[in-house]
């Protein structure tokens, strides 16, 4: 894996009809912000080869809104991404990265935010950038990292939705 893109799901409804967190869908704002974030990433050439998506309704909705910006990307639902801890997210990304150069994860906080902070620390990012990521990683945010041949990360972008 040369590049990892972490995309947090878009803004979701507070409650689902079923009452189950898993079934919460995107709001109209969430759809718009997810599509806009994907367009921003694609415009910058930050395009995944493979996308791993949490099975929750809001992450599937995020990918549905985003996938038009990445028509060549292969995607798959990854059951263990639902509320995955940062260590699990990283393992899944590294596994997918064995056969793909650019991997995108569409998932949830706190796992995505925690992995963002860890990769920033490992890549010796400036403290101001780490503080920004630590303070806020809102819905439809994206963090992008490059990896060298030894698997060391370096910061390649932190993107927040335009509100």
Helix content: 25-40%
Total separate domains: 1
Percentage of residues in strands: 15-25%
What is the overall pLDDT average? 96
Strand segment tally: 6
Architecture, according to CATH? Answer: 3-Layer(aba) Sandwich
Main sheet: strands, sense, barrel = 6 strands, mixed
Described by the principal axes of the CA atoms, the overall outline is: globular
Question: Under the CATH scheme, which class?
Answer: Alpha Beta
CATH fold topology: Rossmann fold
Task: Please identify the structural class as seen in this structure.
Answer: alpha/beta
Radius of gyration: 14 Å
Spatial strand arrangement across the major sheet:
3-2-4-1-5-6
Q: How far do the termini sit from each other?
A: 32 Å
- Low-pLDDT regions: none
N to C succession of SSEs: EHEHEHEHHEE
- The count of helical stretches stands at 5
What quaternary form is this?
single chain
Look at the structure and name the CATH superfamily: Phosphoglycerate mutase-like
How would you describe the overall organization of this protein?
α1 (28-43) crosses α2 (57-66), α3 (86-96) packs across α4 and α4 (111-122) packs antiparallel against α5 (127-135). The protein is globular. It has a 6-stranded mixed sheet with strand order 3-2-4-1-5-6. It is an alpha/beta fold and 163 residues long. It contains 5 helices and 6 strands; from the N terminus they run βαβαβαβααββ. The termini are far apart. It has helices at 28-43, 57-66, 86-96, 111-122, 127-135, and strands at residues 3-8, 50-53, 74-77, 102-107, 142-147, 153-159. α2 links the parallel β2 and β3. The model has no long low-confidence stretch (mean pLDDT 96). It has a single domain (3-159), classed as 3-Layer(aba) Sandwich (Rossmann fold), CATH 3.40.50.
